[in-house]
Write a structure and sequence with these properties.
The protein has 677 residues and is of the alpha/beta class. The chain is built from 17 helices and 29 strands. Helix 14 crosses helix 17. The chain binds alpha-D-galactopyranose and zinc ion.
Length: 677
């Protein structure tokens, strides 16, 4: 949990790196930040080399000055542990800290997120630094959160990681025979007789090209191992801080749909989830919402922190378009609409050197408050002041859970066949986008979540079904839940071995179908099918399936090719519930049409009537429901307010019914919940 005991309002601020500037400039920074309503700064993110000039010296004198100044100016601190980039002297003295790339290239000192997670040097010095910091600042009340490292990421293929991989495998499989069986090493004569024969899967061994592997089982295990290894690095730092400061609130900044790290596992180790939101200008609003919902989902629905966003522009995209006037405000509220209880930026002040000097900041190179960006930041600062603690303690309620799963992501995209166009985020996104555009709240969930909370659980492309997961689904549906899945689901178990007996394997009885074959179409070709009298494309993959108890839901099956007439959409009554199956991939119109029907059948009610490019979400506690209404277009829109109450941004009273919402504007209505009699 975010530590609300120290907060009166949504924390507003972000990364501040005064160590990059002469001290005489700091007072002016403070003046400007206060003018903008900033009340929290993240300090010390990349200061390892500054604090630790050599193996035995820790020098906090400069950081002390900064902490003192920030405190004097009434701001809170999110204290980073500075381990996101190691010092040059350390790399020179202990080269084991340097990573090795998939092609075998040993890195030299440089960059960041550059430490090997299996390096004894890193594992000694990183927690040591975190511990020294915690000891030094244990009584510092202005520190309201601890921020470990920065955007943990990447991977390593060095000899130490290889040794650790073998240990991880021994723990998982216990015997070499079990491992051979799990990976099906009889294929291409890969049988292992000794653990030391196992090498890391990379471009020197089983991998080639972009994500291709000879052995999916090995490669998935490597991904699991690497995610766990990097998580161990987080945990080592967390534990030393916890030991020193038992009530510390500890996090690290995550990155939304970041493939290499299994964030469901990560979030279990974090006091609160925080993340960095950097969409590109052409991302749809639903894409951004989906990432926020994932970040809420990994934390089991708890509010999260928006740790970073740019106030205006990034520097690392191919074309770094400015956020248009109003967009920074809109996207800040969008984060809150999906569960964020902070609004924070990278960064407070633009640096003058290196690769981020053209990244947006609250304080620009101009150095004063007379900029468009500063004005927008300051205006939002005032609004957040007015909103105060209104949203604290509110959560998102949803009748729809969508299963997101990292193992499944890795497995599906390592798969050789059936289509190179199959991308988990895209297929998942088709369902999410339709639901979001129709104003349903959606929770992103895992198999650890309580399915019984949901009227509808959707698992697009659930390719891997681990032992026991089919049982969870079976129970849920038996007891009256509704489950939906798609083509290329249920094929394999946890080590990527196919479940024989017919697809979709373990899900076959629940769905009441047998998928005999799967056809792939290139991007410019497709099949067709009818639903509700409309014709839709059947893109990319088409299941050739037989009904084994399920009823067809499409008009007359596929309309083209040799499997013309075979069913595309089915529903199976199973126990008290229903299991829906979608045998192909289609377009947005189809998903809207289909999912609105299914939601109707299952009694899932949208928050509000659709208005194009306008998003509606809710957050609530026992007494109040807050409706967020966000106009993502630049034009004014006619909408129907689903409820009356007080707009907590303006303080004005509003009544339900037709109104105009200005381009890029936001309304947050606080309504009293009906008393339950
Ligand atoms: C990430 C990092 C920051 C900064 C920004 C730039 O989120 O955490 O240090 O580099 O990107 O967009
Ligand atoms: Zn390594």
């Amino acid at each position: 949990m975010i530590d609300y005991s120290k907060l009166k309002k949504i924390p507003y601020g972000g990364d501040y790196n005064p160590e990059q500037w002469p001290e005489k400039t700091w007072d002016e920074d403070m003046r400007l930040m206060k003018l903008a309503g900033i009340d929290i700064v993240t300090l010390n993110v990349f200061s390892w080399a500054a604090i630790q000039p050599d193996e035995d010296t820790y020098d906090f004198s400069k950081l002390d000055k900064i902490v003192k100044l920030v405190k004097k100016n009434g701001m809170n601190i999110c204290m980073a542990t500075a381990t996101g980039a190691h010092p040059a002297w350390m790399a020179k003295k202990y080269p084991d800290i340097l990573r090795v790339e998939s092609g075998g290239l040993k890195r030299k000192f440089g960059g960041r997120q550059n430490s090997c997670p299996s390096s004894v040097t890193y594992k000694k010095f990183a927690p040591k630094l975190a511990g020294e910091l915690a000891r030094h600042y244990r009584d510092e009340k202005s520190i309201i959160a601890w921020h470990i490292s920065n955007e943990f990421s990447g991977d390593c293929y060095c000899d130490n990681c290889e040794k650790q991989f073998r240990i991880w495998l021994k723990n998982r499989y216990k015997t070499i025979d079990k491992l051979n069986e799990a990976w099906d090493t009889a294929f291409w004569g890969h049988t292992f007789y000794d653990w030391d024969e196992i090498v890391i899967p990379d471009e020197r061994s089983e991998h080639w090209g972009d994500n291709r592997t000879v052995f999916q089982g090995i490669s998935i295990d490597y991904r699991r191992f690497m995610s766990d290894s990097i998580l161990d690095c987080y945990k080592m730092e967390r534990d030393v801080i916890r030991e020193m400061i038992p009530d510390a609130s500890i996090t690290t900044n995550l990155m939304g749909f970041y493939k290499p790290l299994d964030y469901f596992k990560w979030a279990k180790e974090m006091d609160f989830v925080s993340w960095d939101n950097y969409p590109s200008v052409d991302d749809s609003y639903a894409q951004i919402s989906m990432a926020h919902d994932l970040m809420r989902g990994i934390g089991q629905g708890e509010p999260f922190a928006l740790m970073e966003q740019t106030p205006s522009v990034t520097n690392w995209q191919p074309y770094n378009a400015l956020k248009r006037p109003g967009v920074m405000r809109l996207w800040s509220y969008q984060a809150m609409a999906h569960g964020s209880d902070t609004v924070m930026f990278f960064q407070m002040k633009r640096s003058i050197g290196a690769c981020e000097k053209y990244h947006g900041a609250v304080i620009d190179h101009a150095g004063h408050e007379n900029t468009r960006v500063f004005r927008e930041v300051a205006e939002l600062g005032k609004e957040l002041e007015n909103i105060g603690d209104n949203l604290f303690g509110t959560v998102t309620k949803s009748d729809i859970g969508m299963i997101w799963d990292w193992d499944n992501w890795w497995a599906m995209e390592f798969s050789a066949g059936p289509s190179c166009d199959l991308k988990y985020v895209n297929e998942f996104g088709r369902y999410y986008r339709a639901l979001r555009q129709m104003n349903y709240n959606v929770d992103l969930i895992s198999f650890d979540s309580d399915f019984s909370k949901y009227k509808l659980v959707i698992a697009p492309v659930l390719y891997m079904v681990r032992t026991g997961e089919d049982e969870i689904i079976r129970e849920y549906v038996k007891n009256g839940g509704s489950f939906m899945t798609t083509f290329f689901s249920g094929y394999v178990q946890e080590s990527d071995l196919v479940i024989t007996g017919g697809y979709p394997g373990r899900l076959r009885d629940i769905l009441g179908i047998w998928v005999e074959e799967e056809d792939a179409y290139p991007k410019d070709k497709c099949n067709h099918f009818g639903y509700n009298g409309e014709e839709y494309p059947a893109n990319m993959l088409c299941d050739l399936m037989h009904l084994e108890g399920a009823a067809p839901m499409d008009d007359d099956g596929y309309r083209d090719d040799f499997y013309k007439g075979m069913p595309v959409l089915t529903v199976n009554s199973f126990g008290e519930g229903r299991a829906y199956y979608v045998g192909t991939s289609s377009n947005d119109e189809f998903y809207m049409d289909y999912l609105s029907d299914i939601c109707g059948r299952e009694g899932v009610v949208p928050i509000a009537e659709c208005a194009e490019e306008v998003e509606f979400t809710t957050r609530e506690n026992d007494k109040f429901r807050y409706y967020f209404i966000l106009n993502h277009s630049a034009e004014d829109k006619q909408i129907k307010l689903p409820a009356g109450g007080t707009d907590i941004i303006t303080g004005n009273d509003v009544i339900a019914g037709d109104i105009t919402i200005k381009g890029r504007d936001v309304i947050i209505i606080k309504t009293q919940k009906q008393a339950v009699i």
